[in-house]
UniProtKB/TrEMBL annotation:
Protein name: UNC80 domain-containing protein
Pfam families: UNC80
InterPro entries hit by this protein: UNC80_central
Coiled coil segments of this chain: none
Entry GO terms, CC: axon; cation channel complex
Domain Protein UNC80 central region: 23-161
GO molecular function, one term: monoatomic cation channel activity
Biological process terms in GO annotation: monoatomic cation homeostasis
Length: 177
């Protein structure tokens, strides 16, 4: 047992368990959801901020919760469940009776559709930014794997006795065939 609480067991370092502040994560997600519901599309969060959520130095659970809240918000909007302030942003006329009595004014309806189109554009920008970050993460991982494989190939000891056939030997035999 060392000063940080890590345990060394049969030569393997077992890190000390860390507890998460569940209440803090839930409160943060609740505030994030409130901001998504109440701000104009595109003002919060902007696309680079959404992409930066992947690189936060925080527990995976916290990052996943924020990204899932964004997914839930976009999904609700796609099903027509827009925030109340967007749906009710048009002013209703107070005329009594008639078949057109409860329709919104054309300018209010136009304003609502404009807000929805703007939100859709920002959702698309979120997707582009997250996709770019994910492709960068995959490229970094692949380049590290390639470097490790290249190092293993160069350090292959061809003078070892053994039952296994090294992959470079298999490839060279396949070329002879």
């Amino acid at each position: 047992l060392d000063a940080q609480g890590n345990i060394r067991l049969y030569g393997i370092l077992v890190p000390a368990p860390r507890t998460l502040d569940n209440k803090g994560i839930f409160e943060g997600v609740r505030r994030f959801a409130f901001l998504l519901e109440t701000t104009r599309p595109g003002t919060f969060p902007d696309p680079p901020l959404i992409a930066a959520l992947l690189h936060l130095k925080s527990p995976v659970l916290a990052r996943a919760a924020l990204l899932l809240e964004c997914c839930h918000f976009v999904s609700r909007c796609n099903r027509g469940q827009w925030p109340e302030w967007i749906r009710s942003s048009h002013h209703r006329t107070l005329s009594l009776g008639g078949p057109l009595a409860n329709r919104g004014t054309p300018s209010g309806t136009r304003r609502m559709h404009s807000l929805q189109r703007t939100a859709g554009r920002y959702f698309y920008q979120w997707a582009i930014q997250i996709g770019d970050q994910l492709s960068r993460l995959i490229d970094i991982k692949e380049s590290k794997e390639k470097a490790v494989l290249k190092m293993e190939d160069s350090m292959e000891d061809f003078f070892d006795d053994g039952e296994q056939i090294p992959p470079p030997l298999v490839h060279s035999v396949a070329k002879l065939r």
